[in-house]
Amino acid sequence: MNGYGAGAIAVLCFLKDDMAGKITALEPQKHASDRLNVFLDGMFAFGVAEIVAATLKVGAWLSDEAILELKAADGVELAHSRALDYLSYRPRSEAELRRHLAEKAVPDDVVEVVVARLVDVGLIDDGAFARYWRDSRARFRPRGRQVLRYEMGQKGIASEAIDEALDDYDEAAAVRLAAEEQVRRLGSLPPEEARRRLVGRLARRGFSYELIQETLASQDFLQLTDDNTVED
Questions:
Q1: What's the CA gap between 176 and 182, in Å, rounded?
Q2: In the chain, what are the domain boundaries?
Q3: Full-model pTM
Q4: 3-class secondary structure for the chain?
Q5: Residues 152-167, buried b or exposed e (16+ Cβ, 10 A)?
Q6: Which of 122, 138, 125 is nearest to 181 (CA)?
Q7: Rounded to whole angstroms, how far apart are CA atoms 72 and 10?
Q8: Contacts of 203 (CB under 8 A, 6+ apart)
Q9: Beta strand 61-62 with 21-29: parallel, antiparallel or unpaired?
Q10: Top-tier CATH class for 6-120
Q11: C-beta separation of 142 from 179 below 8 A
């Protein structure tokens, strides 16, 4: 089945209206320039991705089996396009992509083909994704190491890849950045109240109480004493 998956063929087997026939026209679709409409014996039969139709020629005969294989190949291309669109917003883990395609009712074997294709070209790489997640959090919303580990685990990243990504994670720099961000928001509060809330917010981001206290003691945050406890 040209690697398109038995499931993809099976899903399409009920479409027996696509009877064998001679290709009489191959026309671009009006609203999808990368797809072609295939006409058999003068009538519209089905649409396929341009890459799938690359070997089709007007005048050629298509058997029922050939039509089913074309539709299966087109199903892979449609799933691949959906995957690329999903990846266009931000990098994704392999598990995220698999869940997304499953939610779109893509057959399991088609998912395998699409994932393998994307892994081969480096668009799915859980090690790279773990580093991306670490760096993105560090820059825009710093988190403690354990929270990052939990978040990556929820996205299906293997523990080995998580360990590697967090091996050189500068948690001290992350807590300083998070503290500076929160201080700006708490500046209108009385110092003691501001410090209490600051400690609580940093703790909820997964930073340990010891690291928080060390950071606040070493920086001129709010010029407060460090005898507060963590509060939610």
A1: 10
A2: 6-120, 128-166, 171-218
A3: 0.76
A4: CCCCCHHHHHHHCCCCCCCCEEEEEEEEECCEEEEEEEEECCEEEEEEECCHHHHCCCCCEECHHHHHHHHHHHHHHHHHHHHHHHHCCCCCCHHHHHHHHHHCCCCHHHHHHHHHHHHHCCCCCHHHHHHHHHHHHHHHCCCCHHHHHHHHHHCCCCHHHHHHHHCCCCHHHHHHHHHHHHHHHHCCCCHHHHHHHHHHHHHHCCCCHHHHHHHHHHCCCCCCCCCCCCCC
A5: beebbbbeebbeebbe
A6: 138
A7: 9
A8: 209, 212, 230
A9: antiparallel
A10: mainly alpha
A11: no
Q: Which amino acid is at 173?
A: A
How crowded is residue 102: how many other Cβ atoms within 10 Å of its Cβ? 12
In the structure encoding, which two tokens stand for residue 5, read together? 């998956």
pLDDT by residue, tens only, the chain of 232 residues: 455 554 554 444 444 454 799 999 999 999 888 999 999 999 999 999 999 999 999 999 999 999 999 999 999 999 999 999 999 999 999 999 999 999 999 999 999 999 999 999 999 999 999 999 999 999 999 999 999 999 999 999 999 999 999 999 999 999 999 998 888 888 788 888 888 899 999 999 999 999 999 988 876 655 544 444 434 4
202 touches 175 (CB < 8 A) = yes
What does the alpha-carbon distance between residue 141 and residue 118 come to, in Å, rounded to a whole number? 29
Long-range contacts of 224-229 (CB under 8 A, 24+ apart): 224/191, 224/192, 224/194, 224/195, 228/192, 228/195, 228/196, 228/199, 229/199
Determine the Cα–Cα distance for residues 97 and 112; give it in Å rounded to an integer.
11
β-partners of residue 24 are none
